[in-house]
Specification:
With 431 residues, the protein is of the alpha/beta class. Helices cover 40% and strands 14% of the residues. The strands form 3 sheets. It has a 7-stranded mixed β-sheet with strand order 4-10-9-8-7-5-6, with helices on both faces. Strands 1-2-3-13 form a 4-stranded mixed β-sheet. A hairpin with a 4-residue loop joins strand 2 and strand 3. Helix 4 runs parallel beside helix 12 and helix 15 crosses helix 16. The structure holds pyridoxal-5'-phosphate.
């Protein structure tokens, strides 16, 4: 029963394009309509009709400690009581920058912005400004926000909507963007031998989480490091999702590969709008006012967002088993889904790493965007709807990852696996 949600959706559609503030929230990709949230608590969401869901979206990864974490809510309330935005420097920015500097490898300087899109946009400008080169190398199915230059074969909502780029993005804007398949070192080598001298940056999600969850092949990230160094391009790790979710130092720490610039967001803001780019001083100091690469933001370094981020990162620093627990839970979920699929004789692959999990309706492991597209979208949509009816909220698109939080317990996972067993058994025979 979602009577009130349906009514609100009707009103929203008459006021907002598609009734939502961001496309994937519409549930279009899974042939359903969204529920409207009344509140969240830990691993759970409650909708306006009183339905309860175990939430594996967690605000698209922004929440590492679940909804309405008391310490984060308290930090937000106390900070907001002193003012919500000043447009001048505050001590909170220094404190959060110090935490980023201590936790993220190579983060000598940090520029705070308000969204991952802005972080990527700024990093592209810095890379081009610092190298004097125009071209960018990105990977099909990797999403770096909705900046024009990188909306070429992007994942996430663009993949969901099946839009190769987007109307409104001119060929000129993406003319300097080269796209190659993820996990394909040969394609990278070929692109570099053709464009290496013009390449400002290689941008990559070190673990791809916007085409479903796709792990880097052994040696892939290291090969990007080597290629970038050899051709004089910067290696930009987009850790908007993986930062503080795979390890305190993100994918750089997890895979032992150093990037030149790191993009951060989501967990960085503890559920409030904050993002950043970080890297060595000589590079980041190209940014105004230290240098001449322009970038600015009215709400950048917002005190309330900084306070939430400080609380989240402080918690990470003082919890040495956090990532082991997240990963153990993710693996338990992945294993449970595999067993349930086996029992239902449905082809499924599943994996988990740090605070990320993912699965595809596919016969063999998915290693790139084409593989993700070839997975069974109709099965995913049907499974999503079955799980929602059973009180489990999965990402409303097969091109997204599942996000674990410290609030997810073994009981939540056992309940999810039980629901999966029933939902898989009820799948129409699509193949
Ligand atoms: N980069 C990655 C890897 C992301 O997953 C996202 C958003 O999901 C972004 C960048 C863009 O961040 P935002 O939505 O905050 O603009």
């Amino acid at each position: 029963m979602r009577e009130r949600s349906d009514k609100l959706l009707g009103q929203a559609r008459s006021l907002m394009p598609g009734g939502v503030s961001s496309p994937v929230r519409s549930f279009d990709a899974v042939g359903s309509d969204p529920f409207f949230v009344e509140r969240g608590d830990g691993a759970l969401l409650f909708d306006v009709d009183g339905n309860e869901y175990v939430d594996y979206v967690q605000s698209w990864g922004a929440l590492l400690f679940g909804h309405a974490d008391p310490a984060i809510v308290q930090a937000i309330a106390e900070t907001a009581a002193r003012g919500t935005s000043f447009g001048t420097p505050s001590e909170l920015e220094v404190e959060l920058a110090r935490l980023v500097n201590a936790m993220v490898p190579g983060a000598e300087r940090v520029r705070f912005v308000s969204s991952g899109t802005e972080a990527a946009m700024t990093a592209v400008r810095v890379a081009r400004g610092a190298t004097g080169r125009p071209k960018l190398l990105k990977f099909a199915g990797c999403y770096h926000g909705h900046l024009d230059a990188l909306l070429a074969r992007a994942g996430s909502g663009v993949a969901t909507l099946g839009i190769p780029g987007s109307p409104g993005v001119t060929p000129g804007t993406t003319a300097d963007t080269i796209v190659v398949p993820y996990n394909d070192s040969d394609a990278v080598a070929a692109a570099i031998s053709e464009h290496g001298d013009d390449l400002a940056a290689i941008l990559v999600e070190p673990v791809a989480a916007n085409m479903g969850l796709v792990l880097p092949a052994e040696g892939f990230l290291q090969s990007l490091r080597t290629h970038a160094r050899e051709c004089g391009a910067l290696l930009i790790f987009d850790e908007v999702i993986t930062g503080f979710r795979l390890a305190a130092g993100g994918a750089q720490e997890r895979f032992g590969v150093a990037a030149d610039v790191v993009l951060l967001g989501k967990v960085l803001g503890g559920g409030m709008p904050a993002a950043a780019l970080a890297g060595p001083a000589d590079l980041l100091e190209h940014l105004a006012p230290a240098g001449d690469v322009y970038q600015a933001g009215t709400l950048s370094g917002n005190p309330v967002a900084m306070a939430a981020g400080i609380t989240a990162l402080g918690r990470i620093q003082t919890d040495p088993t956090l990532y082991d627990r997240l990963q153990a839970n993710g693996r338990e979920l992945a294993r449970g889904l595999l067993d349930a699929a086996d029992a239902a004789e449905v082809p499924l692959t599943a994996t988990a790493l740090g605070g990320l999990a993912g699965f595809f309706f596919a016969e063999k492991p998915v290693t790139n965007y084409d593989g993700a597209v070839a997975s069974d979208g109709a099965a995913y949509a049907s499974f999503f709807r079955g799980m929602l009816e059973r009180g489990v909220y999965l990402p409303p698109s097969r091109f997204e990852a599942l996000f674990m939080s410290t609030a997810h317990s073994s009981e939540h996972i056992a309940g999810t696996v039980a629901a999966a067993g029933k939902s898989l058994a009820a799948l129409p025979r699509l193949r």
